[in-house]
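As described in the Methods, two query proteins were run sequentially through the folding procedure within a single session, without resetting any intermediate state between them. The first query and its resulting structure tokens are shown here.
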Amino acid sequence: MSQPLWTPTAARRESTNLWAFAEQVGVSLGAGSYDDLHRWSIQESGEFWRAVWNFAEGIGDLGNVDFEKGAGSSSRFFPDASINLAENYLKRSDDEIAISYRGENVVERDLSFGELRGAVGRVQRALQSEGVQSGDRVATLLPNGPEAVIVFLAAASIGAIYSSTSPDFGSAGVLDRFGQITPKILVATDCYFYSGVRHDITNKVVEVANGLPSLQRLVMVGYGDRELDISLVPNSVGFDEWTSGSLNVEPVFVRSSFDHPIYVLYSSGTTGKPKCIVHRAGGVLLKHWSEQLLHCDLRAGDRLMYFTTTGWMMWNWLVAGLACDVSLVLYDGSPFHPGPSRLFDIADELGPRLFGVSAKYIEATMKEGLRPRDTHTLASVETVTSTGSPLAPEGFDWVYQNLKSDVHLASFSGGTDICGCFVIGDPTGPVHRGEIQVPALGMDVAVFDDLGNRLSEGKQGELVCCNAFPSMPLEFWDDPEGIKYHDAYFARFPGVWHHGDFAEWSSDGGMIISGRSDATLNPGGVRIGTAEIYRQVDLIDEVLESIVIGQQIESDTRVVLFVRLREGLDLDDELTQRIRAQIRLGASPRHVPAVVAQVPSIPRTRSGKLVELAVRDAVHGRLVTNVEAIDDPEALNYFRDHPALA
């Protein structure tokens, strides 16, 4: 076992929500055993999720039946429930701040809980005046600001289905998503800011609206305090005008079933048209409560800050903090504008208890040489969370050495598919370098070999979940027989959710994720995870970022590593050999790439994930579909016919 980087004091452990919850359900954490609580949560699954509802003081009626077991995705939780998600998000109506919004250095805006509730009521009336009913779709193309939250909750209050994309998506990417779900209402911005540059998207909005024959109303929102020129977008109405008929309107909440569809999220779409993943209201409500209240230890009155866009599932996770009676800190734009410490400046200003970012962001701050503990107090921050991709061990070191030493670093891993986590943090347990602490409560997480056998610690295999859980998607859009759904998650191991991550349990009881299993490398028939290579390359100061693929050469696969270097540097023999030596030393000889090549840019999805499969297709001369899901699709051209691969 390794020495932990952080261990909570006894006083801190015993003051957590997780400790109180365990006592409430009659399971002792006195010996420091999270395992006992987790075992109970999967053995008594229905009882556990009802206990989460009770702990969160849920509003509504769960009914008398906890769980009806079915095959695969057909299991149902609380089949007799009657609830409304927005009613649980809008419990408060006081004058305390509900949302603090910062858009780079362009806009600052705060809304109280009372103002938020009133705004939701006004938009609810506007939606109803357009004939929007339960099951209709309402879509937004908005920055991470208050209007996106307001429209989402207004739609949810009447049972409409919400969906969002961020304004940096191209028109084809937006239509690939919204075109499938045929929304009645689209609420869009006229522009967005990134790195101090204003990006006008009015032409894109017009193109999107024209491509949605289902659209009955296009509503435009000006960015910040800028005056909106509605004439630039024909057949549209301004947001203020649209909602001006009512000043302070109390929203009315229409209760529906536990499985009522609440929002549609999208797969990354880098290997085809994005899948439209329909989530159920009760499922995400309970899942987010379990993660935020128990695993992240949020309490009423706290502030929750997560750097995300409206096109990533972490936006949905962030907004769920309202159901925990916490205030949201919304940031839109570049996290490094107007300076590299922008997010830490906001943390000092607004005082979040939870400070959430992506692993990519932590890697970038490391490369920038930032040391916030010397420049910021970060006095309020007790939990730092990281997700989006595996956080390298060096990322753990950076947090404790350069950010804050007394903080709970909770690395997450889950996905858009479940709008939550399979493995997550434990505020009552130690944090070990490079490891995600525990399987999430209620989730029977395992690592399988190719034959479906559970693997013990130290053996890599497929990440699976062996039991049903509430936030399993309700369905895929336009998949009436559930065939696409079944093939996506249950075809590999019948009756068991197969997530597609390559993982292993550690000797400390945590989990190490080695990347997507469909992107694993097989040189000489030996299966290795890409994350193991990235961890070593990140130690090379000259390398800003990298991407690794397997290139098919006759009957074998060779490992090819592409690197983006600091400006002005060229990849020479000395640096190439140093990269290879570091990988050999830190991983193993079989991880050493056969080819190391330099590229000026490396593409990612718009949520920051490396697009290994798209790069692999480009290298092999195959068509890369749905490039709109990629932040810089032109970068794929750097990999096609790269001279180093000749």
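Immediately afterward, the second query was submitted; its sequence and tokens are:
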Amino acid sequence: MKKLVFLAAACTMAIVAEADVRLAPVFGDKMVLQREMPVRVWGFADPRETVTVRFADQKKTVIAEDDGTWRVELDPMPASREGRTLTVTGCKPDGGSWSNGYGLWASKNATNEQKIEDVLVGEVWFCSGQSNTSCPIWGKGPRFRDGQGAMVLQMTKRPLVRLVKMPTVWKTEPNLGLQATWMEMDPQLFADFQRGLSLPSAMGYYFALELYGALEIPIGLMDSSWGGTNIDAWTPPSGLASRPDLKDVAELPLLEADAFKKAREKGGIYCGKGIYGGPQQQPSVLWNGMVAAFAPMAIRGFIWYQGCHNSGEYQRYCSKMHALYNGWAKEFENPDLKLYFVQLAPWGNPGIANIQEAQAQFDAEQPNAGMAVINDVGNLVDIHPNDKRTVAKRLAIHALKRDYGFTSIRDNSPTLKGWKIDGNKFRLTFNDAEGWYIYNPDRSVQTGFEIAGEDGKFVPAKIENLVWGKGRDGKPKCDGNISGAELVVSADGVAAPKKLRYLYSKPWFGCVYNESALPLGAFHIGE
């Protein structure tokens, strides 16, 4: 029961004082349990109380620990569309009443019970990150919601898809009393929004919808996200401890709001550290406040969209991604935990290619990760592009290919495999690309490629193996198709090329796609 021993004293007192067995508050009516994995169920009771959990013809019994925590593990189950009841029953030990050390007494030989109703079994995912994750399927601000969300909400009824939207809260200690409310994917959500309901992540909503459409089994999606937050705050202490190069982050003290403010004002430990602009930015405080209560729930994986807040420290971002993954995998007790994440879209940051490449490096190093490249859906005047469905689809194809047996799916954007200089040209070969095309809304064939010669000055480059024909007026015309599996790139006036880069200059939008309609991400070579 080490997972629950760190309950704050006040939380422990509140739970024990009830003298009834209780599930952890993240378990609730309408929830979805993960199929085909051992399902951990836990909660609180009186010390040494006998606790029995019943669900789907299973019965598991355990004795609560001396601190009042308990946990059982249900055997793996197939998916079930039937809403069933999960029951937890407590029976206090014989031998009279006892004191819990806080002056609270419990009666002897009491039996008590808690039930949660309409519990399904299917696929469970977590959704986390900063504002482009928390951007809701529909919200009050025209620039902070999915562009089609109102229409989609009103026409979508998927009662087997269950969603959770967690409130934003940061804590210096794990917030194990966090309450989760599960809701159905139903048109009623739109009416509830008009009455004040906060709707879940658009990215998460569409991801769950895509999975349900492909699998037709229950889907559970939990959204814990907060705009303007850094990756450090979402990373468990165990994750930070897994990376020696992040020792300085792991050793930062966690301060309450007033103490943090004083530390910033008086030149204290957080003064001058740009990514820690508020108390909610401290390492691990969002893990503590918004995620820790769910661990070690059985889940397939999590989807993640974050990086804008850390874009100024791209040199460390790959390591911080490893820390995030290591921590979540450890705390959810799932060494095969999947992490499908979004490479940043352009929003006007001139250094975006650097952190995009850091994200790509993590993707290459972590076999349980998959990256969705979305450099074609950005917005240079809005950090929150309102097309979240494309984002979700590119995340979902990773899950369908790698987790759900859709083996024919091509889920990876192209990555550079090799290159050579041939006269005044670069010849580039790629993984995950058997063919190519260019798509620009203005029908041009300009790309984000640039080449530099000996002087180191980059100039715009062109793809030489475009397929050209003639238009109706007899003039040369190209619809954007490219001949062959390699890209041949040159630049006028550069006879002896030395360096090449892609998407390092304004407007930073991708327009080069493989045959599966997945865009090529930023990269550079020759340095």
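The mean pLDDT is 92. We note this only descriptively and draw no conclusion about the first query from it.
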